[in-house]
Structure to design on (511 residues):
């Protein structure tokens, strides 16, 4: 499963014993790898919601649409247990390379934002594919962390440790030893790097298992800059005021950190606290619903306390398309406008200011239907929202196979409009696609979406039929019962269509 759910067992597990530190040497790094342009540190306060990177969507486009300039990218893990090579979501088609999200990250940086790559997550932590659980060589684990840092020039890595990974004392020790090696390497090469731990919590602070992770970090000399608490999925069969529980959980964490780091001031301790909400209905159900009113309360409290990070699971859930429903990857389960939670939390980020010269972009109509082989068009409208009008460059992304698009003119002065023309072929597969119009000026970037429904298109299945005896890894596609399915991670014997929305198979639609 990809969701950030955890079991009651993991929340209540007993403290694990910290393993004694081993004397390991520094990781050897080639000079070319170590040297890079100085990355810009994250703001002292940052709003960085999670981006579900397995969906095929553009983080830069959703960042622009939502106003969330910084994103936490979920997740990095190995493709198979025992491997020391990490991929995005364990998908061998998404290696740690510029070809995987590099252009998006550069675009976000040009708009004053950045990303925080996150290792682990529920799936990795329950399948043995979290890098420190999977790989038994501390130096190779450290090398993977360094590769992410140098490939994307980031200044923070997140470690999402939950469920089974909380019980893996050897993995906990390897992870913290690798972090210490990376921190020594960064210091020697003039790099700034922060480490955050994302851990499950009770309503009064970390469970013993999560606290043991931090104690082991202290033992190994690994600096932890931020502790992100997952303030949801309590699974205690009680009704919850999720904002009130966030406050008591954070106070509990503060008290725990004060004992671990007795020389830190109150401001420094609160500056180590991060909060991750699950917006709307969480995995437990309606009794644990984080509302928009909760979000406003938590925002005011977070600012007053001076915590470091405010986040939620997940950006793609920030809409009301399934109001009254259960927790889902793509919607919140409550009545809301798209990006309501993002707009409440976005001002939390410090060190960034709204562009003096800014604009908006929309498509009219916002949705269109076309028969495969035909074409349709929409007007791209821009408007000045502050300052003076600047030149806005327009590009298109999110095009499926068999669909092409042009924008004419390709640039306008803010306040002007252009025409988006979308052409399909007879071979275009029927379905609904989100065509993204990216708009960028010298000082700002935004995006608009045309929801394109293609009818009467191709229905033949081109992927190989699913076989129960075959091992599939993340990214591989199969056909089964008239649909195309994509594996989210390693699987064997799990039939597409039977694993549910949280399962290994993602339904790509009829074929």
């Amino acid at each position: 499963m990809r969701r950030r759910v955890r079991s009651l067992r993991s929340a209540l597990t007993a403290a694990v014993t910290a393993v004694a530190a081993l004397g390991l040497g520094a990781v050897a790094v080639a000079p070319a790898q170590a040297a890079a342009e100085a990355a810009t540190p994250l703001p002292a306060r940052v709003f960085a919601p999670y981006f579900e990177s397995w969906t095929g969507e553009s983080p830069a486009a959703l960042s622009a649409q939502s106003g969330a300039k910084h994103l936490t990218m979920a997740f990095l893990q190995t493709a198979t247990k025992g491997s020391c090579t990490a991929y995005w979501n364990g998908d061998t088609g998404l290696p740690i390379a510029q070809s995987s999200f590099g252009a998006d990250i550069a675009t976000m940086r040009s708009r004053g934002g950045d990303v925080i790559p996150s290792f682990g997550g529920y799936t990795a932590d329950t399948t043995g594919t979290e890098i420190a659980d999977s790989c038994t060589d501390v130096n190779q684990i450290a090398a993977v962390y360094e590769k992410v840092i140098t490939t994307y020039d980031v200044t923070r890595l997140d470690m999402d440790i939950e469920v089974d990974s909380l019980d893996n004392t050897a993995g906990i020790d390897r992870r913290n030893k690798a972090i210490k090696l990376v921190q020594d390497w960064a210091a020697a090469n003039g790099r700034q790097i922060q480490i955050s731990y994302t851990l499950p919590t009770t309503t009064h602070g970390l469970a013993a298992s999560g606290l043991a992770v931090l104690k082991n970090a202290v033992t190994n000399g690994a600096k932890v800059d931020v502790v992100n608490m997952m303030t949801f999925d309590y699974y205690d069969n009680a009704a919850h005021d999720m904002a009130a529980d966030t406050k008591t959980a954070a106070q509990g964490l503060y008290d725990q950190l004060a004992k671990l780091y007795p020389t830190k001031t109150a401001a420094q301790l609160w500056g180590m606290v991060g909060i991750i909400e699950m917006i709307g209905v969480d995995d437990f159900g309606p009794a644990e619903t984080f509302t928009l009113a909760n979000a406003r309360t938590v925002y005011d409290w977070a600012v007053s306390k001076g915590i470091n990070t405010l986040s939620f699971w997940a950006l793609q859930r920030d809409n009301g398309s399934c109001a009254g429903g259960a927790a889902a990857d793509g919607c919140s389960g409550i009545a809301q406008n798209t990006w309501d939670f993002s707009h409440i939390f976005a001002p939390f980020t410090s060190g960034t200011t709204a562009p003096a010269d800014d604009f908006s972009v929309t498509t009219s109509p916002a949705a269109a239907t076309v028969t495969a082989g035909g074409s349709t068009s929409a007007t791209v409208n821009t408007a000045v929202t502050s300052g003076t009008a600047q030149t806005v460059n327009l590009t298109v992304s999110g095009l499926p196979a068999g669909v092409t698009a042009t924008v004419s003119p390709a640039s306008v002065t803010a306040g002007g409009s252009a025409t988006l023309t979308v052409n399909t072929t007879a071979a275009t597969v029927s379905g609904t696609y989100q065509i993204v119009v990216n708009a960028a000026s010298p000082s700002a970037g935004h995006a608009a979406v045309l929801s394109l429904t293609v009818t009467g298109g191709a229905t033949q299945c081109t992927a190989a039929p699913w076989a129960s005896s075959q091992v599939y890894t993340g990214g591989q596609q199969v056909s089964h019962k008239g649909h195309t399915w994509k594996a989210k991670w390693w699987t064997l014997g799990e039939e597409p269509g039977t694993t549910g929305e949280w399962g290994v198979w993602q339904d790509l639609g009829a074929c």
In short: Residues 1-37 have pLDDT under 50 and may be disordered. Residues 471-510 form a domain with the Seminal Fluid Protein  PDC-109 (Domain B) fold (CATH 2.10.10.20). Residues 169-188 form the longest helix (20 residues). The CA atoms of residues 201 and 420 lie 48 Å apart.
